[in-house]
Amino acid sequence: MRTDNRTVKNTVVSIYFILIVFGILLATVFKSLEFFVDSTFFVFLGLFVVLVLFHSIAGYFEYDSDGAKIVILNKGLILTEYINYRENKIEFARHQLMGYKIKDYFFYKSLVVLVKTYDGKQVKERFNVTLLKRRKMRYVKQSLRKTLKENSKGKQG
For residue 72, which phi and psi values (nearest 5 degrees)? Predict the structure, then answer.
């Protein structure tokens, strides 16, 4: 099964654009009006915090379990064609999956995957699934649950 959240890219780019235009607009308004001098710093600090939070939330997620291996990919949505920043990719055989957990914070959702490496160690990988739609998240859970069930049957039999 393959799924991703590429449809939210246009929305994310639009929100980035609106935040930057809003910041420029505030800079020009605060510069021309003299009575907002005391609160200008706090307004820009708040806008910067919102921009940083949005940047941490906005990410591309891709899940592919069609072949013999499961591939999970996270990367940024802006400038990914030019600069490959924030990429997190894991590719592992189905029998290596040990477990998974979905952590749901107020503004952020993450998928934590526990994978057993070939040398016997267990590795935890975190993926940002905040912008993944609920229906697609259900498909990812279903696929991971099915793989874990197959792995437990293989150990018993």
Answer: -125, 130
